[in-house]
Amino acid sequence: MALKPLETLLYSVEDGVATITLNRPEKMNAFTTQMRDELVAVFDETDADDAVRAVIITGAGRAFCAGADLSSGGKTFDYASRGDAARESLRVGDVYRDGGGITTLRIFKSLKPVIGAINGAAVGVGVTMQLPMDIRMASTEARFGFVFARRGIVPEAASSWFLSRVVGMQTALEWCYTGRVFNAQEAFDRGLVRSLHAPEDLLPAARALAREIADNTAPVSIALTRQMLWRMAGADHPMQAHRVDSRAIQARGQSADAREGVSSFLEKRQPVYPDKVSTDMPAFFPWWDEPPFE
After folding, report:
1. Which helix (H) or strand (E) holds 128?
2. What torsion, rounded to 10 degrees, do the Cα atoms 142, 190, 126, 166 define?
3. 58, 21, 10: which is closest to 199 by C-alpha?
4. Cα–Cα distance between 10 and 6 in angstroms, integer?
5. What pLDDT digit, counting tens, does each position of 55-111 carry?
6. C-alpha to C-alpha distance for 209 and 115, rounded to whole angstroms
7. Does residue 178 sit in the same domain as residue 288?
8. Can you tell me the distance from the alpha carbon of 186 to that of 84, in angstroms, rounded to the nearest whole number?
9. Domain boundary at 213, 232, 260, which?
10. Cα dist. 249→126, 194, 252, 277 in Å?
């Protein structure tokens, strides 16, 4: 199914790297229900397109994402009283699903590596949507803030699961308790971002990392690896990882990719991996049962 025209995002694919740009620069890329839906649709597209080997997400203008669009005023987060058709579609019984969580859960399921190129202000959902991204790189001008308690709400977008896994419980609680906005250096020092870059160097650095992945690795192996590491982050015992590892190494060991990987190494040449994510994932994938929303 062709991707519908996008109004809140820009999307392009070049040399195996997809770039998603949050594109409401006049609103500092504030998050809306339309942006949520378009992000989900674009990740469906990147998963389905075998030409995409890695995904970069960044923002247009001076912000990455300034959080939720607050144009509804004090009722912004009062979904039940807003009469919003888009929100009604997310109602399950007497609970309205969190739109940020729908976005992060979709990124979590991605079969392609996801690199955040955080170019500017990233607060509220602008920072929580980054947490399921695999690698976050930031401009030295970026700013971050888990500002929820300062708005009378709580962390969202499944960040109560992601954040402590990324930066540890102490830092997660400090940032959420204070709700303060902090600079890129603190984000780097505490492990939220992998590296800092001058603004003009950020996207080239992200693209170089994406190219290193695209040029040297087997797409099916990357798709499996991504899900293995993320899913095992919540496992109760390493035996769960051993079971999945055993299935995966057996399936991959029998693949044309494994033969090509070894042959190209021995012949000292670039590999050309034949297997595709769209058609050649192993029979045991997916191996997990995702709990329903109740």
Report:
1. helix 125-128
2. 150
3. 58
4. 7
5. 999 999 999 999 988 766 656 666 666 566 666 778 888 888 999 999 999 999 999
6. 9
7. no
8. 38
9. 213
10. 37, 29, 5, 16
How many CB atoms are located within 10 Å of the residue 246 CB? 10
The CATH number linked to 231 is 1.10.12.10
DSSP 109: T
Same domain for 191 and 114: yes
Q: How many CA atoms lie within 13 A of 269 on its CB side?
A: 7
- Strand segments, DSSP code E, in 147-217 are 181-183, 195-197
Answer for the pair 218, 280: CB distance below 8 angstroms, yes or no.
no
pLDDT in tens, 203-213: 999 999 999 99
Co-location of 250 and 168 in the same domain? no
Residue 279 DSSP one-character state: T
Q: What are φ and ψ of residue 21, in 5° steps?
A: -120, 120
How far apart CA 121 and CA 184 sit, in angstroms, is 10
Q: Which domain holds residue 197?
A: 9-213
| Domain total in the chain | 2
